[in-house]
Description:
Elements: H1 9-21, H2 23-34, E1 45-48, E2 53-56, E3 61-62, H3 64-68, H4 73-76, E4 80-85, E5 94-97, H5 98-114, E6 122-126, H6 131-143, E7 146-149, H7 156-166, E8 170-174, E9 177-179, E10 182-184, H8 186-194, E11 202-206, E12 220-222, H9 223-228, E13 239-240, E14 244-250, E15 258-263, H10 264-278, E16 286-289, H11 296-308, E17 312-316, H12 327-335, E18 339-342, H13 344-351, H14 356-359, E19 368-372, H15 378-388, E20 395-398, E21 432-435, E22 447-453, E23 463-464, H16 468-476, E24 483-491, E25 497-502, E26 506-509, E27 512-515, H17 516-524, E28 529-539, E29 543-552, H18 561-575, E30 584-588, H19 601-609, H20 626-632
Helix pairs in contact: 1-2, 5-6, 7-8, 10-11, 13-15
The structure holds adenosine-5'-monophosphate-propyl ester.
Protein name: Acetate--CoA ligase
GO molecular function, one term: acetate-CoA ligase activity
Enzyme class: ligase
Amino acid sequence: xxxxxxxxxxxxxxxxxxxxxxxxxxxxxxxxxxxxxxxxxxxxxxxxxxxxxxxxxxxxxxxxxxxxxxxxxxxxxxxxxxxxxxxxxxxxxxxxxxxxxxxxxxxxxxxxxxxxxxxxxxxxxxxxxxxxxxxxxxxxxxxxxxxxxxxxxxxxxxxxxxxxxxxxxxxxxxxxxxxxxxxxxxxxxxxxxxxxxxxxxxxxxxxxxxxxxxxxxxxxxxxxxxxxxxxxxxxxxxxxxxxxxxxxxxxxxxxxxxxxxxxxxxxxxxxxxxxxxxxxxxxxxxxxxxxxxxxxxxxxxxxxxxxxxxxxxxxxxxxxxxxxxxxxxxxxxxxxxxxxxxxxxxxxxxxxxxxxxxxxxxxxxxxxxxxxxxxxxxxxxxxxxxxxxxxxxxxxxxxxxxxxxxxxxxxxxxxxxxxxxxxxxxxxxxxxxxxxxxxxxxxxxxxxxxxxxxxxxxxxxxxxxxxxxxxxxxxxxxxxxxxxxxxxxxxxxxxxxxxxxxxxxxxxxxxxxxxxxxxxxxxxxxxxxxxxxxxxxxxxxxxxxxxxxxxxxxxxxxxxxxxxxxxxxxxxxxxxxxxxxxxxxxxxxxxxxxxxxxxxxxxxxxxxxxxxxxxxxxxxxxxxxxxxxxxxxxx
Length: 635
Ligand code: PRX
């Protein structure tokens, strides 16, 4: 019996129980039967959760790109690997076969080598959703360079801090990006970022918008002529199972972004396995995940998961509202998409438009529809199920994180009965637990607690780049011996999980994971600001939005509050990116603080939500009178 595919609920429980009893045997068999290795492993797993040390498939040798492309060529060379759907629907879509992808990735990999990039070097990729993005990622992985994709919506200083943190040698970018009816000057953003990044000696520039850009002599080169001159064969680097594959930055509740480091073999095994099962993937399916490759969802379920299975994956450059609110549905109809994977925020924003936008397209090819990134509310779940899935496609509400690398808790379509707003059951091999405040594991069902994972899984991040202590502290110290997710969850009467949201200072805005501390740091740099506190509050479309409580310096210089509000948001935009802008700003004369000087965010959160009942114990506050002032001036 193969463990790779789960066909019914009985098999799920069988596999699940087996995976808990004998995790090494379980993952070992999946790894052995479904991938090509240069050399097998000594041990399937070696770990010490206390030290946050985890190794999967020790000493095995493998190249993930050989598994994504080369091994499919004999059987699927002419099959479409990537469908590229441009921002502008009038521009023709591209169908890139596995043979074409092999050539393009090999050439690009040779370009990287010629430019001096070697195994272990870090390459920052700052590109729009165009084929060059996929090709660059895979080219890095082919030669063992560590890719660090930075979402092309981040500002110059956000890119710079990510480049500096992992000392990238090279940046791959484009002249510009199309986004709806706008075009964005990506090269200009990179030029500004690189003023602060001495480690970068080479910049390769893809042409997309054909806009004029500055090319810095000796540093910048157009990508295409280099690719044209390269040969289409490139010997793949032999990678150790635990060699780094990529770094992907995610916001932390404090301090600078965390460069989550993922390694090769475990990531490969679990992304492939989860893709196959959670999307019920079959050979001729057309899979579309609408995320950006700049996020983990794009890494695992636009690129690696689908390609490891020899699938056809759609890369969409545009946005759901351009040229109109029917774009997603038009693309599904046009390319006969069979699995569609998107975020609740997109679902909510489209659900508020006229249903005709979706109802007029033929979505009959769809088999499975998925959701990721934040809790999906009941109304959005039903709209998605009724109008997109037409009540015949299971909705897979998939819970996971940048840190987990792959989907962890999710229904398996046609296997697990779905339940609106529930991510339902863990994948085989995944051992979630709920913990109480006293750090005890909560047994039984119909319980609520902090969500932890108590046993390693193959695609977990191995460390934070350059800061293992922070990795240990952030994820393995709150509940010793366990990985703490930062999320709260409940387990219902049948053992289904429902994720209730973050229990730390991270707010998920439109599916983007934002730490409040870095935003506060950015605001506090504004010359008028003395101190600030940011909290999330519920928002109909975005899930959560940000509310800022700001204390101004007493100079009185900044009297025009509207101007100041605008300036603060511009400041956030340029320091972090437009996604971190505040929806509401309230100027306050003080913030509720404990005697030790800690801001009581719990109170601010309640005020931002407009819930003035039961503030809990405020007796420990240094300045309880401030609460009434803040309440009465709420915006
Ligand atoms: O709070 C959870 C929420 O998104 C967080 C992870 O964010 P990020 O690392 O950016 O990865 C997003 C894409 C995997 C989680 O800690 N989250 C993710 N999926 C769900 C979710 N919350 C509820 N339900 C989900 N399905």
